[in-house]
Amino acid sequence: MSPSSPSTTPANSLLIVDMIAALGAGFMSFFITFGAIAKLTARMLRAMLSRPFEFRPLIQQFYSLGVQSFSIAFLTALFTGAVMALQFGWGLERFGAGNYVGKVISVGFVMELGPVLTALLVGGRVGAGITAEIGSMNVTEQIDAIRALGADPIKKLVVPRVMACIIVMPLLAAMADVVGIFGGMVVAVADQGLTTAYYLDQVVTTVNIPQVMHGLIKAGFFGYFFGIIGCYMGLNTSGGTKGVGRFTTRTVVVTSITILIGDFILGKVLLPFTH
Asked: What is the count of structural domains for the chain?
């Protein structure tokens, strides 16, 4: 090979080195962030077990994170169930299996779509809100003021938000399961000629308790993911008001990726227990 070959030019060599360096930096940043979130989780658990435990901030977060997220979870589940019934009903009819649309929708919702779609939408909203709120407090030195008063910002800010996310997400996912199956039933009855009794019989005979618990356990983990990520990003926000916007956007991206990756890992771990 001649010295002037494109594969050995200095420019190509530098490009490869830069790509490897960028990839290494990305992996290092991931592991550093993962370690920092694990450390924050440990600090949160210690603060959660210390007395006194304040219920008022937790109730406030229930309303802020749960009740105010009800509408977006409800509408998403309703129309997703309707679209699934429409699409799967048409597809299954080609194979003479249009009557089984209730089985597909019910299993798909309780194990996957209910927890995952709810977590992606609610997690984006809630995670961004947590980051913006705590990040604004951080850049205006309110968190330093909490420390100066002798209080623990982890106990005051992180514990009630993460606990509320963990508790609220399974409730929202359960609601999404019911609403999504109902939305599928409306389309199946109105568009495909199934009876309500037949559709509900398919749902009852197909879905079992382990499958429902599969989705609800994943929803609890998803709540922890976007809760702790939102708090971590908020506590590490810097750069003034521009930094708040930057870290809020980063929270939405990281939360979505974490939920999708976590869905695969949790699904792999929990799947043997659903039969």
From this structure: 1
